[in-house]
Amino acid sequence: MQTTAPEKIPFFRDPTKLAIFYQFLTVLGVGLLSYYLISNTLANLERQSISTGFGFFDREAAFEIGESFIEYSAADSYGRALAVGFLNTLSVSFIGIILTVILGTFIGVARLSTNWLVAKLSAAYIEFFQDIPILLQLFFWYAFFYEILPSPRQALNPLPGLFLCNRGLIFGVPEWHSAFLYGGIAFLIGLIVVYFIKKWAAKRQAATGLIFPTAKVSVAILLGLPVLVWFLSGAPTAMNIPSLKGFNFKGGVSISPEFTALLLGLVLYTAAFVAEVVRAGIQSVSKGQKEAALSIGLRPGQVLNLVILPQALRVIVPPLTSQLLNLTKNSSLAVAIGYPDFVSVAGTTINQTGQAIEGVALIMIVYLIFSLSTSAYMNWYNKKIALVER
Amino acid sequence: MNQLKHVVPSIVAAFCLSAGVAMAGTLDDVKAKGFIQAGVNGDLFGFAKPDEKGVWKGLDVDTARAVAAAVFGDADKVKYTPLTAKTRFTALQSGEVDVLTRNATQTLSRDSSLGLNFAHVNFYDGQGFLVPKALGVKSAKELDGASVCVLPGTTTEQNVADYFRVQKLTMNPVVIENTAELSKAFFAGRCDCMTSDASQLAGIRAVAPNPSDYTILPEIISKEPLAPAVRHGDDQWLDIVNYSVLALIAAEEMGITSANVDEMLKSTDPSIQRFLGVTEGNGKALGLDEKWAYNIIKQVGNYAEVFERNVGTQTPLMIERGLNALWNNGGLMYSPPFK
User: Fold this and answer.
1) H helices within chain A, ranges in order?
2) A220 close to B (CB below 8 A)
3) Which residues of A touch B141 (CB under 8 A)?
4) B8 and B118, same structural domain?
5) Residue A250 bridge partners (DSSP)
6) For the domain bounded by A78-124+263-386, which CATH number is listed?
7) What is the pTM of this model?
8) What is the pLDDT of residues A285-323, one digit of tens each?
9) Do A338 and B174 touch (CB under 8 A)?
10) Is the CB of B145 less than 8 angstroms away from the CB of A135?
């Protein structure tokens, strides 16, 4: 029998064409549904005389925000107020993620320790913090700070220039001087130099087998270069020391109890989950690998760095990503303890402008941006370490 | 999850808005389900808070009960939805509640761009500052650099920012959504002062560990006419809520109380006869039973009774009538004629 030409198959039996057809139908359906929802919402809002759109961005916000990384006052616009909230969420999430990874790794490794006490303490930590809802932990830490710490007038002063009270941790910082800018530039240059030294050392080791003390040299360059520059530009030592004026401290840098409580709660909670992820990752590498590595004469540190971790990381990174995303999302619980994060600022904006739909949409977009960029970075990293496999 | 408390109603509102809201006929809807769903504070002593037996008490609660008495002849046919300052308007817009009696300040933007209508004011309030006496502050002008505990999602945040700007003072707000949590932080000394409507401050002071340690500063920095709100576009329902509040005031003007209302039925004063429905007409005009005002006064009392019972000088709140006295007593409470 002769084969018939493929174009003779009727289109309703051709799986490729049918697939395209169904996809087209789905897209059309979704499109129509969103059109219906959006146009209907707009029509209803119009009918109830509720204003729509993002025109409020330029209007004066007229409310104060407790803490901010950029200049902000009540005379600024809603757009700037939202930017303040965005940066507050970003900072608590970013610092939180770094601390969580460090603490979580530490506890996870400690749980596998051969020391009975260390292993059991880590296990107890994990069970305790994992099992209590994060909101309760936040309330606890916040109450801990405002109940335990004294008022500004009786502030604890454990070190000169450092004060601890229920307004937060306030400490002196060096007075601004151009030497610090030059020092910062020197640090960046140091980073580049270290990068090239590392490359060169690896090449030399591959060619000659000689090991270069990269770590020691790097630390020396990264610390030494900025200090040298600071010294050469006059070694300014003027400090901006906080002092009690009226109700509160003026000068210096202060870290509020709200920020500390939120950061502490998020880190302690998420680190318990990260510890479990790390433990699972390390246990996924078979014992034989470690024994083989030791038998060829690698030192325990090298075994961990060159054999165990590269393989464990491939197991660790994907679930770690989702824990870090959880941390970012949980940071929205800030409203409960008075930290002005994005949700809190957007909430005030919603209330003052009455534009709930725009406000909620903004909150969703912002968290989507945070989550997608964290995922993107972690996926990139995951791909990079996955290449280690042959 | 605390943050969900305001996100969820907003999303619900979004869906309800997109699904289309029943615009007119709140009265019919209410009659069909047999009760009024009232949005209240839930945490504010003297205005709306369940007592130790779980019975809702307060000035706002009594306002909602007055509306129920007018509609059903039974003041108990109310169900209460506790709402935060942030969720309250959304809950009303989306139809989750029929009337909002939640110490909400009437403002131009709420009346217009939020799609609400306000009935007659049931309490004239103003924003003040609560400070610990130990702080030694006598005037709000001495609060430069203070940490200020602020309840979010009210006009409060804006008022206090405006006040400090005008006085050229600086402030550091601590904004916590939940009244109870905020009060705890304030009593523990997290903030130097707390700002809110003076009535609310009186309520918060009443639950302080030691109320006499705190004082309300003399400065009142804003006008806060607190009024029940309904949705735009249902004029009949607005009239009913409006005149339920006014009936409380009118009864006080005419000297009708829950104790003497039955006697007053026999009064020969034509205005009282009209008010209590002995002479018919008012009820029909509103679409209610002719006995609507009688039922309000019989079951809830007049404005003076409601005020003294919930927030007056004999209560822990110890609020004087002040602006809330009748117009002929130096206050602002004034009812149009019931004819």
Assistant:
1) 15-47, 78-111, 116-131, 134-148, 178-208, 214-232, 257-283, 287-295, 300-302, 309-330, 334-337, 342-353, 356-386
2) no
3) none
4) yes
5) A243
6) 1.10.3720.10
7) 0.74
8) 988 998 999 999 988 888 888 888 888 988 899 999 999
9) yes
10) no
